[in-house]
Design a protein that fits this description.
Layout lengths: L2 H13 L2 H8 L3 H15 L4 E4 L2 E4 L1 H23 L10 E7 L3 H15 L4 E7 L2 H9 L5 E5 L6 E15 L9 E2 L7 E4 L5 H13 L4 E5 L3 H9 L4 E5 L10 E3 L1 E2 L2 E10 L5 H22 L1
Parallel strand pairs: 3-4, 3-5, 7-12, 8-9, 8-10
Antiparallel strand pairs: 1-2, 5-13, 6-10, 6-11, 6-13
Keywords: DNA-binding, Transcription, Transcription regulation
Organism: Actinomadura viridis
Protein name: DNA-binding transcriptional LysR family regulator
Length: 295
């Protein structure tokens, strides 16, 4: 038995279905279901019974959930004691990120965090993809990570930002707005270089749409992307929040919208004070951004 299994059982009891529980915890549904079944086998009891499209607690399941809540509350209280907190003085914080998300981390979050916590030494660990990020967390090489959600069930996830993929085009290009994804077929695009992590993200998106654009430029020089678009060499498929200086260019959303959920992730273990501080700071930053967007 472990805390992850208890969290999953409590979430399933609260949400009524394993699918809803997995969505609330930002983990894959098969991982949650597997963890619950493993706990049932270990205890030798059935915790949930099917009811329509959902599940309900059995009599013994109600007892287990009641005790699980007590245990989880106790763990949270113990973690909150943090007797060794020193305000982050002399601490090191290791944050893993994929190549596509590292600029978000180093360009927006870390400078602000450094102003609030100047004594914390932050080390960014660049990873080739989500699998490498998860491996770094499991091995203890990173305290936190910025990555796509959902993540495997043995990791804890905190949603941070819903990021929109948009099309940035030269002026005068006549296209619908919003744009159907099928319109990308045959379109000239400025693309990241082949073989890299950035290109893999775009290729995965294009594979889901079935569209086959024409590579006009292939380069990882992000600073030059918008210049090539302005020169009329092609359009750019990228994240709205990661581009500045769009004057003179046309930005179009897709229909249906193409979004990507970004989160802060860590292993199910007690975080060091600097990591907890960064997690709280990032959540507050996300809340402030949502307030600004709705003003």
């Amino acid at each position: 038995m472990n805390l992850r299994q208890l969290r999953y059982v409590v979430a399933t009891a609260d949400h009524g279905t394993m699918t809803s529980a997995a969505q609330a915890l930002y983990v894959a549904q098969p991982a949650l279901s597997r963890a619950v079944r493993e706990l049932e086998r270990e205890l030798g009891v059935e915790l949930f019974a099917r009811s329509g499209r959902g599940v309900v607690l059995t009599a013994v399941g109600e007892q287990v959930v009641r005790q699980a809540r007590v245990a989880l509350d106790a763990v949270e209280a113990i973690e909150g004691l943090s007797g060794g907190r020193s305000g982050g003085q002399g601490a090191e914080l290791r944050i893993a990120a994929t190549a596509a998300l590292e600029p978000e981390l180093t360009g927006r979050l870390l400078p602000r965090f450094a102003r609030d916590q100047p004594a914390v030494r932050v080390r960014v660990i660049r990873c080739a993809g989500r699998e490498a990020v998860a491996a770094a967390l499991r091995a203890g090489r990173a305290d936190l990570a910025v990555t796509d959600l959902p993540v495997p069930g043995d990791l804890a996830a905190h949603p941070f930002e819903q990021r929109e993929v948009v099309l940035i085009s030269p002026p005068g290009l006549r296209l619908r707005d919003p744009l159907p994804l099928t319109s990308l077929d045959g379109m000239r695009l400025v693309l990241p270089a082949r073989g890299g992590a950035l290109r893999s993200e775009i290729d995965a998106l294009l594979a889901r749409t079935g569209a086959r654009p024409v590579p006009a430029v292939e380069s990882d020089e992000r600073g030059a992307w918008l210049g090539w678009v302005r020169a009329g060499m092609g359009s750019l498929l990228w994240y709205r929040s990661q581009l500045d200086d769009l004057d003179g260019l046309t930005v179009r959303s897709f229909m249906p919208p193409v979004t990507r959920l970004i989160g802060l992730v860590h292993a199910h273990r007690r975080l060091p004070p600097a990591a907890r501080d960064f997690l709280a700071f990032a959540k507050e930053t996300a809340r402030e951004a949502k307030v600004r967007d709705h003003l």
